Amino acid sequence: MRFICKVVFFMLLGSMVAFAKPTIYILATGGTIAGSGSGVLDSSYTSGTVTVDKLIAAVPEINKIATIKGEQISNIGSQEMNNEVWLKLAKRVNELLNSGKADGIVITHGTDTMEETAYFLDLVVKSDKPVVMVGAMRNSGSLSADGPLNLFNAVNVAMSKDSVGKGVVVTMNDEIHAAREVTKTNTTGVDTFKSPNAGKIGTVFYGNVKYYMTPARKHTTKSAFDIEKIKELPRVDIIFSHSNDNPDFINLAVANGAKGIVNAGMGNGNPFPSALEALGEAVKKGVVVVRDSRVGSGETTMNGEVDDTKYGFLTSDNLNVQKARVLLMLALATTNDKAKIQEFFLTH
């Protein structure tokens, strides 16, 4: 009888462990997913008006599958995203994941700069546990608001054992994208997030998570960057190239203290002649210049039409300009060795 009781006890204990819900923290930063407007058919709205508690309450289904805890990191439109929020967010994510308080993190965020925040976190989070960025293209009061289902899917992605080791991902419109690859491609469409160079890495359909690819570049625990050693991020400016261009904005960036410049060049990262010479002069003054392309996909190759060796330029591999800026800021906060910085672009 005693033996039978022990067997039953351990069976019940095993069942409790098997059905123990994971703890998922939702860190809210604002954005359209936390926005509200005047009516269901009114396209005007204000970002960052709904608190994290209300976001969670709007999707009661997530409480059935996970222990949900919410924190308000900021409540802004992501066009207002800044270095201070980035540093605060990154340090909190690391604290929650490495202390064992969280099994996964979901970050609600505006879509305008979601790809930049995702890539920043991908480079500085020191955990293999899932970190999932999510947002919405339609505010909470809009007809067919996409936020609730996106949030439900994001929690499921954060719970999935298959998300472990994938780095930071963006979950929107039933798709899962790697932080390094994803970009916003449409101003208003719900299918705005795409990965032009690599494609999505998975899907999530009403909580059913499937992965098809794994990010190959260094991220999270294998990344070279340590956020605990970074107190501030240096100024890096993006200069957009065009026909009949001039060097004025390059010279102004240098005069105002830019430590780095990412040039969104034409085609394969080609600047206008006078801009090319100004970028070369910037390098002589100690500014790190990275050639990139305004095209939006494809690799910016070394020593093509531009003699990068002569001018002292670096190239961005296939990062878009906004992500090249993120990487260059972290690189400059870590080292002044240009060869090492170029290596970061080829490995991260």
List the helices and strands and how they pair.
Layout: H1 2-18, E1 23-30, E2 36-37, E3 45-46, H2 52-57, H3 62-65, E4 67-76, H4 83-98, E5 104-108, H5 114-124, E6 131-134, H6 147-159, E7 168-172, E8 175-178, E9 183-184, E10 193-194, E11 202-205, E12 208-211, E13 236-240, H7 248-255, E14 260-265, H8 273-284, E15 288-293, H9 308-311, E16 314-315, H10 321-332, H11 338-347
Parallel strand pairs: 1-4, 1-5, 5-6, 6-7, 13-14, 14-15, 15-16
Antiparallel strand pairs: 2-3, 7-8, 8-11, 9-10, 11-12
Binding site for substrate: 78, 111-112
GO molecular function: asparaginase activity
Organism: Campylobacter curvus (strain 525.92)
If you had to describe this structure to a student in words, what would you say it looks like?
The protein has 348 residues and is an alpha/beta fold. It is elongated. It is 32% helix and 20% strand. The chain has an 8-stranded mixed beta sheet with strand order 4-1-5-6-7-8-11-12, sandwiched between helices. The chain has a 4-stranded parallel beta sheet with strand order 13-14-15-16, with helices on both faces. Strands 2-3 form a two-stranded antiparallel sheet. Belongs to the asparaginase 1 family.
User: Can you write the helix and strand succession as a string?
Assistant: HEEEHHEHEHEHEEEEEEEHEHEHEHH
Record field, number of beta strands: 16
Which fold name is given in CATH as the topology of the largest domain? Rossmann fold
Task: Give the low-confidence spans.
Answer: none
Structural class: alpha/beta
Strand order of the largest sheet: 4-1-5-6-7-8-11-12
Kindly report the average pLDDT value. 93
Most strands sheet: 8 strands, mixed
Helical content class: 25-40%
Our estimate of the beta-strand percent is: 15-25%
Radius of gyration: 22 Å
CATH superfamily of the largest domain: L-asparaginase, N-terminal domain
Q: Which CATH class of the largest domain applies here?
A: Alpha Beta
If classified by CATH, what would the architecture of the largest domain be?
A: 3-Layer(aba) Sandwich
What is the 3D form? elongated
Q: Tell me the number of helical segments per DSSP (H or I, 4 or more residues long).
A: 11
> How many structural domains in the coordinates?
2
GO molecular function, one term: asparaginase activity
Domain L-asparaginase N-terminal: 24-215
Signal peptide: 1-20
Family: Belongs to the asparaginase 1 family.
